[in-house]
């Protein structure tokens, strides 16, 4: 599947969930959030990268599939909402307990730091499984 803008919804991008498409995804988000505070945009980009790379790495392994990303601005309070949807293996990244970051790195279990960081950078992270899709929404107050 080629990467394409969805003409029926100008704030939605559907693309093949491959790491090579990360730059295009981040460009899409930055374009949609033009004028947002730089610090918030940088935090959104870090979180979006983590989520997208996880989808690309695990959702369809060993094959590939698509990801749909929507960006919306919300008023009162002003916030950015970034929603990731994939039809891959069911996975709730919020179900796993946060890693104990007070332990030395040698004593920590592998994995989990990315979603932990995403939860710390965003004001809200929600997961939903609906109609065979993983739906993860990031909310960042602006």
Please describe the structure with a list of short key phrases separated by commas or semicolons.
single chain, 142 residues, alpha+beta, Heat Shock Protein 90, six-stranded antiparallel sheet, 3 helices
Molecular structure report:
There is one protein chain. The longest helix has 22 residues, at 38-59. Helix content is 30%, strand content 28%. A 6-stranded antiparallel β-sheet has the order 1-2-3-4-6-5, with helices on one face. By secondary structure, it is an alpha+beta fold. The chain has one domain: Heat Shock Protein 90. A hairpin with a 4-residue loop joins strand 3 and strand 4 (79-86). The radius of gyration is 15 Å and the shape is globular. It is built from 3 helices and 6 strands, in the order E-E-H-H-E-E-H-E-E.
